[in-house]
Amino acid sequence: MKHNRFRHLLLATMALTATTAAAQTVEQADTMALPTDTYWLEPVIKGDEGKLLNRYIFADNWVVGAHAGLSFNWGSNQREAAFLSGLRPSLALSIGKWLSPYVVLRGMLAYANNRGVTSQPYKTFHWQSAMLNADGMFSLTNILCGYRESRPFNLFVFLGVGGEQTFGFSKRGWNAAEQRFSRGTCSLLNVHAGVEALFRLGESWDLTFDVENNWIDDSFDGVITSNRWDGHINCFVGLVHRLRNHDGTHQFTFITRDMSKYEEANREINRLRQAAELAKLNMPVVTVETEQVNVLVSFQENSSLIDAMQEVNVYTAAQHMQQTGNKQRLYITRLGQGAANEQLFRERAETIRRSLVSDYHIPADRITIEMDRQKVETLSNPENCIIVSINESSK
């Protein structure tokens, strides 16, 4: 009776740690092999290389900003007037969505008070414009150097397209030859490109510097010349706020091991350890020596993503491979022999394989995916391997 009770305790402990061993040789001993604290530790990886990002929803990673600066119209006859007088105030509001650590989609609404120069006799006039653009922004620093959560500086390049509305032309300086061109409201297509320097001010605030060039139809300033394009250069200084995500962060973050998730399992393991220690006082304990390791990985129903609670099981398999110098072979197979969704199994197996290769640097040629579990169990030397079983019935 005591022997059966102790055996049940030992099996429960092994199930909670997601590692079981197949018995090959048995010998008497007065100690019992128990999980160590290192089982729960995150593997040491230099920098952020190989880490995974937390999952985010559509409502996460939005930014809003306010910008102010100067605009310079480089359209018709601008060389005939003083440069400094052509620098005019400009304001803008922006909203953006980080699609990934490398790409941002931004919308910007801007206003400018522009200066123009008529044809001979050269006289200056003013008009106003409103611009609404959509930009695709690409972080060169993250693309070339890898994403870092607390990087103090980011350099972006961006391309955009939108529309520009002109209005409020002044009456000064217009000559008869130009009366045939509309000096009222005019809607034009805008294409632009530029660069942005972003400086991190804190957890949720950034300081930005934008320089962009805009290409617009020659009628933008109301003066038609032989040039095909009018345009303007905008220089903005902006203050950007990163809105709060659903998990309380303000940006993309890497997955870290949250030990609180394992507290319940650890408490149960400790309880079983104490019970096992008490049982040792009344009976001999056996130690099982084996070279075969079995690991179970469960998935959410119809999902091929590794749940955060299951990552420790993938780590367990990788740890055993590393302890043997990656000389053993690792098999990814099914748990059970019944009918299964082959496509879903393949997706789950590939997810585990990618994690082992990219996160733990296990050689890809040492990993085999085999859907037929019976083939794995009938290997000629099955004890010298690690078997990762996918629990397909998990919900």
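Above is the first protein from milestone M3; the second protein from the same milestone is given next.
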Amino acid sequence: MRAVWVIALLGLLLGRGLTQESPKPPANEKPAAPRETTLSFAGEGERWWWTESAKGEPLSPPQKTSDASVAIKLPADADALWVYDAKTGNLAQLKVADLKEKTELTSDRFSHVARVQVNLQAQGKPVASAVVQLTDANGTTHTRVLEPSAEGVLIFERVPLGKVSITARYGDEGKASQETTLKAERETRVPIIELALSGSVATLEVAPKGREGQGDAETPQASRIGTIVMFVIALALAIGVIVFLVRLATQKPQQLGEAMGKLGVELPQPTPAGQGSGATAALAAPPMPDLPPLESAGVDPTAAPIGATATVIAVGPATRIVATQGPYAGQAFELTGDLMTIGRDAAQAIALVNDMGVSRTHAQIIRQGDQTLIEDLGSTNGTYVNGVRISAPTPIKPGDTLQLGASLFRVE
């Protein structure tokens, strides 16, 4: 009898287990999947976009678009979408949670300046050291330390548009402040704020541009010497031709006439006495043919006439940079991408890890069609093109020289 009751109980429990419904997932839980959005702009133009996590860490390198719209697949852990307008130098910060399937990005949604440059000077010289605070329109204070290696220049990134206040503290009790307004429409992509300090200020001696490295000084000098030598050679050849023609005309006029006749040039003949009014007969002026080189007069066919300007033959866009001085002397770096960053960080497209004078993210090279530009990214020691420190994207071409830290490059 006890066995019957045990079997009945087991059957009852088994029946309830089969009829019980399986647990359902919470209603608010959605399957993880990449999100997508299509950004549409007011028109075509160069723009760059990238995503960041909630901690502000980039999830992918910036990608370029020139179209009026672009479809973007957002990573699952993306928190913000940043868009950079290359024409204005402004940034748009979009929260991924607020994006729609189609998002229209008008000019008023570009709310930040990508980079703001602050120059600190005293008595016309760069300030050596200071603590600089920039308070933006949102009330957030950004603090930077000015070191002597920065040569009086500080860069603040992602500054909201609107009123900003700059305060510099220096020396024992020195302090200087200035207010300005960052506008969406301005003359330069990187606004420059000049802050003059007074009193007891440590400054730096201004070195002549292009003298920081011996290579920078040698290259322009060699070019100037070569130009002078070529000018002297051309001048000597021209003087020799003139002297030769003058002697030939005075000593052997008949031979000169025959030689010029072979070239298609007819010289005037002397008028016999008693004929005409004594006036010189006019030269016949037939159409001038393409004259061959004056080989008989010793003239180099490639020599330019005096005062002529040499013609520079375009050799096409830059394809690589070759190190001529520094830790990477003799090494070539190919320019294969539309946007290539240069820096001491091993993750950069052109990594100069052995050059301690190069910042971790120093500069970037941008290719736009047949044009190649280099832009400094707020480096400590600056970027130089042909010996001149740049503060904005600067075109480069084969034959130019670049200096980053202790490394000197030739553009090819």
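Note on the second protein: Confidence is low (pLDDT under 50) at residues 208-219, 271-314.
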